[in-house]
Request: fold
Amino acid sequence: MSDAPKTSGMTRLRNYFLTGFVVCAPLAITAYIAWSLIGWVDSWVKPYIPARYNPDTYLPFPVPGFGLIVALVL
Reply:
């Protein structure tokens, strides 16, 4: 009935892998660039935030993005 050639399991596996890579690679690159940009802005802005407003003073863990929020508000 169908004239389509049969593909082997390895060919399908390779095609699935490449499709997944083409979809996931831009997402991973975008996430890395966003995380780097947030870290860069945080390191640039946080020294100018008074200690009583800086959450790093009160919390035992860093709050990523706080410097970016302050930069956008100001």
